[in-house]
Design a protein that fits this description.
heterodimer, A: mainly alpha, 70% helix, B: mainly alpha, two-stranded antiparallel sheet, 26 helices
Chain lengths: 304, 654
Amino acid sequence: MISRIVLQLAVLLLFAPLPLGVITKTKALFAGRVGPPLLQPYHDLARLWRKGFVFSRTTTWVFLAGPVVGLVVPLLAALLLPFGGLPAPLSFSGDLILFVYLFGLARFFTAAAALDTGSSFEGMGAAREVSFACLAEPTLLFSLLVLARGADRLALGDLLGPQLADRWSGGNGASLGLILVSLFVVLLVENSRIPFDDPNTHLELTMIHEVMVLDHSGPALGMVLYGAALKLMVQGALLVRLALPLQTGSQVLDLLLFLAGLLGLAVLIGVIESSMARLRLPRVPQVLVGTLLLSVFALVLVLR
Amino acid sequence: MIWLLGGILLIAGSGIPGLLLRRDGNAGERLACVLLLGGILLCGVPLAAAFTGAPAAFSRPWTVPAGRFAVGLDSLSTAFIAPLLLVVAAGAIYGLGYWPQRTHPGSGRKLRLFYGLVSGAMLLLLTARNGLLFLAAWETMALSGYFLITCEDRLAEVRRAGYIYLIATHCGTLALFGMFALLGQAGGTALFPPAGALPAVGSALIFLLGLFGFGMKAGLMPLHIWLPGAHAAAPSHVSAVLSGVMIKTGIYGLVRLTSFFAEIPAWWGWTILLLGALSGILGVLLALAQHDIKRLLAYHSVENIGIIALGLGLALLGRSYAQPALVLLGLSGCLLHVINHGLFKALLFLSAGSVIEAVGSREIDHFGGLLKRQRWTGLFFLGAAVAICGLPPFNGFVSEWLIYLAAFTPLQRSDPALFPALLAAPVLALIGGLALACFVKVFGISFLGAARSAGAAEAREAPPAMLWPMGALLLACAWIGLLPTSLRPLLERAAGDWLGAAALPPLAAELAPLGAISLAAWLLLALLLLVGWGLGRRSRGLPREVGSWGCGYRVATPRMQYTASSFADTLVRLFRFGLWSSYRGGRVDGLLPEATEFAVRTPDPVLDRTLGPTFALLGRLFQRLSCLIQNGTAAIYLLYIALTLLVLLTLLPR
């Protein structure tokens, strides 16, 4: 089990920044620019790790707890998921709830760290983050209910296991498609992507996630960025596994297919970011409630 | 069992010697604390035996008309008594530092007397096996609670809260009198029937009366009217006992009552499930809209009672539809959440008390930056906040996880009638998300950032007598979160007690792998400590001498920080249909606006928006009526007399 954990974490830690580079590259291509190299996120992380810290005088140890929890949570959550051919190293009945609540823990500490600076901009970001998450969580739970229908064991490793391909071709294709859309929206919200949030915006008043980490610097900022990359990969893994439940039989081939799926997801996010504008903030809850209804339909379909 | 009765007597009487001692000396309070702790140790002996699975009972004839004096201690009672003893002990020690008689000579002795009495009465209530004994203990608890809540009765607000509590609790007791009378009629004796002994046919009224009486005490949603005011008015360690333990006696009543019946009609479970969802969602929304830290925590009690009711409702449905897995998961989630909520809510009230004592205000917007001034209090509050949000690695996660597992159960075993119960899972997720928003708000606004008032800038850390009990409670929370398997036998046996003879599957690896949760919690803790230690080592001793980034603005003041109401505003406006907040002022006009004010207030939708106006209207109506009848004209009174005589003459037999 130890070797499986190490392998899974190694894949995660090494691969996670790459999708970010792919997103940036896609957006650059759409804008007619060359864009930074694909491996730029790795260089950024290395550069930040070498830098020093700047701390505001209002901050306490909670300010550093944010990046730490934000980095550790995706690591642990990744152990509950299968990565292509690699089965989930930690899999037990009910681990899907742990998966959801682990990200809750990360949100708690990220928002608390934002409030620790005493700046109203960061308070604003924290308030938006926790408010929108309230609407995203029921959607996530409805989607998990759809996934768990008919399973013997409520473990993510089983729900996303080989029988998923049969469910797509069986009677459940429509509801799986609906939750695929819902989960994609949840992924965009949770990872602060356009149309819900713009990671590259330059106006503090309109940001959500970026404004929460304004005061972080040096290695702590590096940990925040790395944590965000890991989170995108882990939550993306759920989506990719759901969309591509193919199993060729060869572990290496499956893993490669899975990683290619992640890159495809990054391209998709890049295309959306290039072709869509940001939603006005008051519209975000409406879209989230719409997605919630979508997942309710999916549940009704699968229960019928 | 004799140990337990002795312990109860000692606890109940712990405040009496202090009455004979000086009102402003510390001998009385110390003696009361020692007696109380001694009593708790005595109770601990039979409790430890019950923990290992040996139920005890004691029965004696008595001169009271109905039945015998009967007490018993099974696993179901143990699950309620264990957190009670811990919270009462922590509160008693905390009280030495928080409410010393030196500084509160007017209320110190009264507080100790009724604190002991309410604890003893609760213990008796949880062990009573006779309806009359139960009612006597119930009423003692309710009345002592009243005197504890009105400890500071010179304040009008406190008197009002106490008055509402008294009305509410007596309405509940009235229903319970009816319930026990009917129950006695059904069973033929005032003694509690054994589990599963009564037929469910014709017991709808018993259930409804019980639901009203016990729900009133527990604070289920439309019946919660007394709870926010009372918890805010009482001294903090009393609030901890009220909220952590006393409202759970209502849940105990419901659990015990439903155990008497052989089969459970499905609508019982659906009703409790619905009330639980309502309490959970509205409770946390109302909490989010509050600015007073103790009112906010009180509304969170309503929310957590809702979560507990979700578990109980699922367990009842499991019995109606013959699904043992659902019964076991639902009931163990319900009972574990009773234990957990007792621990972390008590800790929250105790640490809030430490903050209120230091700052001199209950308004969250007067705090700020307290983590730097009150390092330990802040840490304890943070731990409890993480626990109450149901986040790993603390105990709240384990119980909510069990309830989630119960909510997912209908998926696997297809009985279409049970499908609506699946909704408990997204409801629980919504409650969890809102609770997280609320506790980020409370912790962030109170303990982080810069001090928002002079009181907060000069706050001092609480004395050790207040810190140690808080630390013990946090350890207990962490214990259950990290080693949940240690409570598994108790939960399994309690579910067995509830069901009576019927056999249940064990809460083992395939149903609810508590061991795996424990492993994940340890892994999380280890990783957090490792990474935190690494980052802490790199940043140790670095100066903190620049201001926070203010988008180029250099002279930011603490007043410019985000406030509690602005933090909650997005969600409060989103759910305004259930909250009915009132907004006042805040409009800014023109290019150079004048100074303006803005205030937002969220009164209780049931008490202040519905019951209050209704009763005021009725009061005016009856006043008008009485003016009409008693109008002071002598001729009219003569007419009344004549009419009465006429009626009597026609009615009387010749």
